Amino acid sequence: MNDAATAMQNPELSLDALSDEELVDRFLFAANANRQIAHQCFEIIISRYNWLISHVVRNSHYRFPAWDSADDCIARAIFKIYRGLAKWRREGKLSSFIARITSSEMIDTIRRIRRDKSWNPRLSEAVEEEEEKPTAIDRAASPEPSPEAELLNRQQRELVDSLLEEVCRDWKDSVIVSDYIILNLGAKEIMAKYDMSEDVIYQRAHRLKARLIKALDERGITSTATLLGAGAKKKK
Amino acid sequence: MKSPQLNTELFNQLTELFNARAASQGEEAPTTGELAAFFYGKSADASIARKVALNRDARDEIALYARAEKIAAEDQPQQEKAPIPAAAWEMIHRWEENEFAKPKPQTAAVSQESLKQLAKLITEREALKSETLTVSQQQVMVVVVNKEGEIRGFERFEKSETKRGDITLKHAEHSARFDNRELHAVSNQDGNQYAVESFKIERDRVRVGKLLNRADYFIIED
Description:
- The complex is a heterodimer.
- By secondary structure, chain A is mainly α.
- In chain A, 67% of the residues lie in helices and 0% in strands.
- Chain B has a 7-stranded mixed sheet, covered by helices on one side.
């Protein structure tokens, strides 16, 4: 008999002693029948991972306004963990599942507060912004297309899009193509930001450049003239 | 490591195109769900890869997942008392009272392993064996148990069978008491091994397909 079933038959057995898996089992058993037990189980789960949730939210490079604070974000993350525990499929550690829900909640919060143009959630840019606040007129969206958009004709836009879709196969590819190959950020900065090793960055960058060359070649693009020309079509 | 040779002029021009594309408006950011699926390798959608490459905010959000994963991997579960914020409890209580918080199907809420443990407990009860003997061949006796495996009662279900052998069980009292609950059918395989199949009850009946002749049935109800 597994421990969760044993615990059901021996209520005196301390919930604290249960493993994460057993505690979640017990929580799910009790969720529709005995909410008091379910809540007790959940309190123990959160006490185990409260530091994790708090650390993910509070130690990010984002700042939260008083009207949608880090505490609000944490409360919503905890609620979503409660609501989502049944979906934890034991494929990974419970900590990873909780980190994922918390990060998603934080991203939703950042996106929401970013929509309020009076608040910049980026910590690093907040100081610069304080020093040189744009006026409301500066911030108003221009009805005309941006100069960049005008520069980029539809065909070139399609070319860039198709190259990225062909070359990038996972998030690390997208990040390295963009931050390392195009924006020329340093490997150390990328390592710190995305928790990637230096080797991964160099190896992937090498592979991605090779893919990029191949993709361009397949489209008959070997020079700036052909790149900017109209004939950039993928070879059959 | 030496990188593949890419014509410098061509590469610079390509970089300019990438930058112009990234700066141009009109590229919508991936949703949080798409982003999470992409980060965790659940989706290989090329359009998300493109959006992430072109959108700085999306890359910053990817960095949040990467950072959180790192913290989670290094995290040692704590045992300190940390009260759940009142605001979280409020949301939980509201949700529990909400119509969307209807009981989940038992198969989602109760693990197969636990069901098997319950099944074993139930089929070994003498009370069930003697009750089962009181029903006709056109009936089955279903045992109602609580989540601790304690027997709460017995319910008769009428058995009907189509020509193709599909079986439907109907509550003899025509009650909707078990509506939306699940009926679990237990078959004993190989001595101590129990197989459990679960079927949703709709009002007073449940279709169990071509079920084995020798099975015990139970419903979990508190």
